[in-house]
Task: structure prediction
Amino acid sequence: QVQLVESGGGLVQAGGSLRLSCAASGRTLSNYHMGWFRQAPGKEREFVAAISWNIGTTYYADSMKGRFTISRDKAKNTVYLQMNSLKPEDTAVYYCAAAPGRTKEYGDWGQGTQVTVSS
Result:
């Protein structure tokens, strides 16, 4: 099992930037996929971005491409989500999740961090 702790959320004006961090512990992340998801009030959770831990291949939801960048620091066992040009509709709780490469099913989740974008 992987323990995940997100940080970096907060209140930002539209057009601003935030960088979220997700610190992982509990086991090696070799062959894992690490993902970011978000859930806005009254809406279902949606995929934001993911990265393969070993190779660093990245995946993005179409609406995030060009504005969000996912990365990882293997030495720190940490995944990041750089969010630029933020919009009020990006307001949500952002969750980090881990999926074993063999299943690609996200079974370990962090507690989430709130991002609020004011207009």
Q: What stands out?
A: The chain is about 0% helix and 55% strand.
